[in-house]
Amino acid sequence: MTRETASFVYVTYIASTPEKVFAAISKPEITRRYWGHENVSDWKPGSKWEHIRANDERTVNIVGKVIEVSPPSRLVISWASPSQADNQESYSRVTFEIEEYEDMVRLTVAHDELEAGSDMATGISKGWPVVLSSLKSFLETGRGLDVFAKPKTA
Amino acid sequence: MDDDKVFRALGDPTRRKLLDLLCEKNGQTLGQLCENLDMARQSATQHLGILEEANLVSTVRRGREKLHFINPVPLHEVYERWVRKFERQRLNLLHDLKKELEGE
Fold first, then answer.
1. CA of A28: how far to CAs of A3, A18, A82, A84, A135, in Å?
2. Most buried residue, A42, B22, B26, B48, by most Cβ within 10 Å?
3. Is A117 exposed, middle or buried (0-12, 13-18, 19+ CB in 10 A)?
4. Count of the separate structural domains present in chain A
5. DSSP label of B82
6. B1-71: CATH topology
7. What is the C-alpha to C-alpha distance for residues B52 and B50, in angstroms, rounded to an integer?
8. ipTM above 0.85, yes or no
9. How far is the C-alpha of B56 from the C-alpha of B53, rounded, in Å?
């Protein structure tokens, strides 16, 4: 059975170093500061990773496996909702590529193998631009954005 | 990374149309995009080049094909810088008006 898949590619340029960007993606004490979540893993190929909300509840919002790691330039992980963790079909794939670009870093996040039109596809396409803007802001100014911000409807 | 480039890239109806087409279906080839545009491949290539230069479109090579993806990250930065700030003020005004009218 083939399903229709969707892919997204996001690119941002950050005034930073590849090492700092790689750490900002893989170190929970850093991810919590601009993403509101901790990315927790030993980052070895085949290991699992978890995306845990950085609050008292510590809800696990995304789970997956580490597919490929080569710091500081590349990280590939699988990505699924914990409620669908047993369903192999539900896993999508996220590739982080970090390259030096003049005096900046070009970070590419490719999210593919998503089920077209799924809640996950809709959710991540809203989420990544916010997270990447926040990451850029955090690394360049020391301040992330509020990734949970909503229009203030009073 | 460069607000001027983003605004310049957005200041053209064909380029906005290209972004709309990619928003509907991400990851299209030049040929697929041209099917929906009344325009020669060469001009479409130029428009896509300007969008790519502004980091609003990113490309990925898959075999012989070059796929174009919409990259909304710079738009989000423009939103944070140029929209949200003013939106907050406007929403506060609406909130005050509502309070006044409803006698909350």
1. 34, 17, 19, 23, 13
2. B22
3. exposed
4. 1
5. I
6. Arc Repressor Mutant, subunit A (1.10.10)
7. 5
8. no
9. 8
Q: Could you report the per-residue pLDDT of A135-154, keeping only the tens digit for each?
A: 999 999 998 888 887 766 54
Residue A52 belongs to domain spanning: 5-141
- Average pLDDT for residues A5-31, to the nearest whole number? 95
User: Are B1 and A132 a contacting pair at CB < 8 A?
Assistant: no
Domain boundaries defined on chain B: 1-71, 73-104
Is the pTM for the entire model greater than 0.90?
A: no
Q: Which of B76, B80, B92, B104 has the most A C-beta neighbours within 10 Å, making it the best mutation to test the interface with A?
A: B76
Instruction: Give strand ranges (E) for chain B.
Output: 57-62, 65-70
Please, what sign has the CA dihedral across residues A16, A17, A18, A19? negative
Question: B28 in contact with A at a CB cutoff of 8 Å?
Answer: no
CA–CA dist A21, A101 (Å, integer): 13
Distance CA A56, CA B6 (A): 40
Rg, Å, chain B Cα set: 19
